[in-house]
Amino acid sequence: MKKLMRDILTNGEFRVNGSLWLEGNGTRFFGPGPVELLQLIEETGSINQAAKKMSMSYKKAWEIVNRLNEIVGSPMVITATGGEKGGGSSLSDEAKELIEWYVSLRERFRRFIEEETLKLH
User: Fold this and answer.
1) Which residues, at least 6 apart from 9, have a Cβ–Cβ distance to it below 8 Å?
2) At what angle do helices 93-119 and 32-44 cross, to 10 degrees?
3) Is the CATH code 1.10.10.10 the one for domain 2-119?
4) How far apart are CA 113 and CA 15, in angstroms?
5) Residue 19: helix, strand or coil by DSSP?
6) Residue 52, number of CB atoms within 10 A of its CB
7) What is the pLDDT of residue 105?
8) Dihedrals φ, ψ of 80, to 5°?
9) In contact, 65 and 82? CB cutoff 8 Å
10) In whole angstroms, what is the distance from residue 78 CA to residue 65 CA?
11) If DSSP codes are grouped into helix, strand and coil, which group holds residue 47?
12) pLDDT bracket for residue 99 (50, 70, 90)
């Protein structure tokens, strides 16, 4: 196996790669896209504005938020309707903790990928 790998790897520049998602009940539900959406909701105070910044439809953003809420079992996004400012959205403490944990996990995953890529050379 070592000779085969060495032969393969001398024919180009190779690197280890991968993506990282959380799955629940066999469904991908938390990864780069949903994390970015939640971060933009927190930044803008609006699901609609967050969706626009991602060039995503409002309907798609709501589908992501609803799927997160269903799988996690508690609201990730807290919405307020009406009022002087027309309502808005914010993240629950659970959503903020999940994002923080995921960002940390991504960093560990990035380091793992980097270390494995170095072993190829």
Assistant:
1) 120, 121
2) 140
3) yes
4) 8
5) coil
6) 15
7) 97
8) -130, 130
9) no
10) 10
11) helix
12) very high
